[in-house]
Amino acid sequence: MVKQLNLFSQPSLNVGKKLKEQMASSARESKFSREELLERMNDLAGRYGVRLVKGNGNGLTMATLAKWLNPEAMEHMPGINSLVILCAALGDLEPMREMLAPLGGMLIDEDEVKLLLWAKEYHRAKEARNRMRKLELEL
Fold this sequence. Notes:
The protein is an all-alpha fold. The chain folds into 2 domains: 92 residues, no CATH class; 32 residues. The protein has 6 helices and no strands. The longest helix is centred in the last third of the chain and has 29 residues. It is elongated, with a radius of gyration of 22 Å.
């Protein structure tokens, strides 16, 4: 569920620059060189049938990847499928977090999912115990 945006304290919904800054940061901080990242992206795209670039190109080139990772080159933005491939190749979801943040959304990992499910069950059990106590007092 997406939370209601406040008209007066709303973060910018123009996420392009922050997204590209995070993409560049994630690529820079990864254990992969640009060449390795490019190869991983093209491999993943081929395996999953994702077209990374428009036109007749057979794959992503180093020049296009460099433009995608350049926050100043706003006219060169990867498509959503390409962004997913980039995140998968890097093993990093931070660029996706940048897209969700202005909407109040968050990404959580498997451990956080388990903790959230545990917390929900804990509160359900606590509410059930309270209802049982009230019924017991009525007996």
